[in-house]
Amino acid sequence: MARIVILGGGLAGISAAYHLEQKGFFDYQLFEKENSIGGLCGSIQQDGFTFDYTGHLLHINDPYFHDLIARVVGFDQFNVIHRRSYIYSHQQYTPYPFQMHLHGLPTEVIADCIAGYIKRATHIRSPKTFVDWVHKQFGAGFARHFFLPYQRKIFAHDLNKITASWTGRFVPQTSLEAIIEGTMYPAPAPSVGYNAQFFYPKQGGIVSWVAALARKLHQPINYQHEVVAIDSKARIVTFANGHRQPYDKLVTTLPLDRMLAMLETPSNRSFSAAQNNLMCNSVLNFNLGINRPNVSDKHWIYFAEKEFPFYRIGFTSNFATSMTPPGCSSLYGEIAYMNMSAARKDAIVARSIKQVQQLCAIDDHEIATQKVLDISHAYVIYNFWREKHLTRLLQTLAQDNIHSIGRYGAWKYCSMQETLLDGKQIADILCIQPARRYYETVTINPLSYQERIHEQQT
Ligand SMILES: Cc1cc2nc3c(=O)[nH]c(=O)nc-3n(C[C@H](O)[C@H](O)[C@H](O)COP(=O)(O)OP(=O)(O)OC[C@H]3O[C@@H](n4cnc5c(N)ncnc54)[C@H](O)[C@@H]3O)c2cc1C
Question: Residue with the nearest Cα to atom 34 of ligand 1?
Fold first, then answer.
């Protein structure tokens, strides 16, 4: 029996394992259904191009995370990049964020946004929905011309049924001075917002830093172990390959809705309300490898207008030159959806690629390769049920020794930084218990993960 069993070898699971080991706790097992680590922070090699699961850029503002990156990976392994991101609307590119850069847009749009901002609904004291929040912060004009159509696309859901509690650091504020200045001058985007500067690995795509963290682990990762059932009373996890793993404490990073569906619970527990109300959307991510350099000078572009099915496209080759063979470039696009047939997915991706080709002047013969990734769990929907019941649900699971963490385990809109910190936090919590006793009962393999791989291969 392992005292702690960790499910999922994405960033949250790797981080939990790393931080347990940092505390001298080795009596754990980590299981992952795929044959590789990283989950959504994975990267794919194809025809000399590297593609991530859409743009994955590292934003660092937490001192502990900063130190960890310095210690485990080294900042010399990253490009430090200053954002060049834009909004495309009315056949114009305006710098991000929209609420500060109206210069170049049609006069009626500018007038509508400014008038709306002045008359914004400041009387709404605590906005309940995202729509109310936008009207309070930015007014009806900004709501109409950007926020509502854009967020409708990205969430693929009714915005009147979404709270604003996720907005926090993700949506920069504005002011009348900033709006007027941004209307008069075609200034480049100032350093506002959480992503004004970001880091990207020089080699190997985004997975490379997660892999560097995984290489620090002493315990092996159990690949190709797909969880199919969890018995919380007997404390046993069953895998598709027949393996059954007892545990004392379970750390799960699996999507919460799927994990609950596998959970065999004592009769006094019912999670059916949660299963009916946990909602998220999916994202179709198309990636193109292009047979010529400099397909764009931008990092990414937002699209709010309805005629474009995608909400964003980005240019991976502008994050690191190693992402493409020499003389090539690459891009990605993102289409959010809920429940879409395979035929419709094919059609919408094909249409989107044609539109991107037009926007970036890419001929058919310049497309060297393409890869479409279907991300089943992408953006968690912050519905009213989540607001009211999620914390209680996670607490109830924790009482049953099931700690559900990470972006989909804890059912939230979070970045890699927060996901890594989730792994640290759960290790801190679990190791308040007598870790020392557990530590003394196991034999620690003194070889590092890398050394053991080498040993197995030779
Ligand atoms: C569209 C999009 C763009 C993003 N962009 C950024 C960005 O630019 N910057 C940033 O910081 N963050 C970004 N993120 C967030 C980032 O991807 C997540 O915070 C992070 O990857 C979550 O890691 P996780 O370990 O919680 O989940 P996951 O990566 O989903 O890991 C879960 C793991 O569990 C495994 N698993 C699932 N089911 C089973 C099973 N039954 N049995 C065993 N294993 C199983 C999976 O294979 C996976 O490895 C983005 C997310 C999305 C959706």
Answer: 8
- Over residues 234-258, the pLDDT tens digits come to 999 999 999 999 999 999 999 999 9
Distance (angstroms) between ligand 1 centre and the Cα of 179 equals 36
More confident residue, 65 or 439: 65
Please indicate, yes or no, whether residues 114 and 174 belong to a single structural domain of this protein. yes
350-361 mean pLDDT: 98
* Residue type for position 215: R
392 and 256 fall within a common domain:
yes
Ligand 1 atom at minimal distance to the Cα of residue 12: 25
Hey, which of 6, 54, 56, 403 would you mutate to test ligand 1's pocket, going by the most ligand atoms within 8 Å of its Cβ?
56
Reported as a single tens digit per residue, the pLDDT across 309-340 is 999 999 999 999 999 999 999 999 999 999 99
- 390 CB near ligand 1 (under 6 Å): no
Of the residues 333, 357, 375, which one is the last residue of a structural domain? 375
56 CB-near residues (< 8 Å, 6+ apart): 40, 41, 206, 416
In this prediction the pTM is 0.91
Q: pLDDT tens for residues 277-313?
A: 999 999 999 999 999 999 999 999 999 999 999 999 9
What is the distance between the alpha carbons of residues 322 and 201, in angstroms, rounded to a whole number?
9
Is the torsion defined by CA of 32, 38, 40, 46 positive or negative?
negative
The whole-angstrom separation of Cα 298 and Cα 225 is 40
Say if residues 238 and 231 touch (Cβ distance below 8 Å): yes
Which residues constitute the domain of residue 218? 2-79+203-279+381-457
Does residue 410 share a domain with residue 429? yes
